[in-house]
Design goal:
CATH superfamily: Aldolase class I
Shape: globular
CATH topology: TIM Barrel
Strand content: 5-15%
Number of helices: 12
Largest sheet: 9 strands, parallel
Radius of gyration: 17 Å
Structural class: alpha/beta
Order of helices and strands: HEHEHHEHHEHEEHEHEHEHH
CATH architecture: Alpha-Beta Barrel
CATH class: Alpha Beta
Number of domains: 1
Amino acid sequence: MNKISEIFKNNKAFIGFLTAGDPTLEKTEEFILSMEKAGADLVEIGIPFSDPIAEGPVIEKANIRALSVGTTTDKIFDMVKRIRIKTAMPLVFLTYMNPVFVYGVEKFFKNCHQTGMNGIIIPDLPFEEKDEVLDVATSYGIDVITLIAPTSKDRIQMLAKDATGFVYLVSSMGVTGVRSEIKTDINAMIEDIRQVSDTPIAVGFGISTPVQAKEISKTADGVIVGSAIVRIIAEHGENAGNYLFDYVKSLKDAIS
């Protein structure tokens, strides 16, 4: 069992997301540690990008804020090095193929390994083209997390079969963002996945309240919350740490 899968072993996992460099990398480091203290089992670190096609307005604006203060991939790697001195919690990058390609695939995953990253999520990497990064990532011990969306339908089992780390099950059509109601038949999708894979399943996109998190966690192995966390950071800026702690704790308590 790898480090990411271990977080699902004895409890329902809470996974939080934030954008690196929003409002500063020093604060990103602080916020990650604050979320861990509140009960987060894993944190996804967004690498800011000018064209984040899977993101809604909240995370789009966070990308712009992070880029505007000079956040770069190298600076993010330096931040991860600092975090690794303080925590062993699994960390996963969320980014797009363009930043990885421009940085250099080999160099990128080598740095992931050297700085202590555990996985990566690339929303715009088609399943049929995953070999462009999979072999290199695997050689450095980095899980390439499989995304499965409601539109996957007949492809669900094919996508899930060789998944590692966890399966990122997208709860709703469209881009990221808080939703008052999730109408997708999550249970049916989870059933399909479990027929071919023992890899833990975490559900994201749209989850923002303890009630939603509790309901999803009845069948899923974990929940992922992003936009609601980024919105707290947008609202409170450098003072968001305590608000993040309280919010993440309320969600973790709901699924425990």
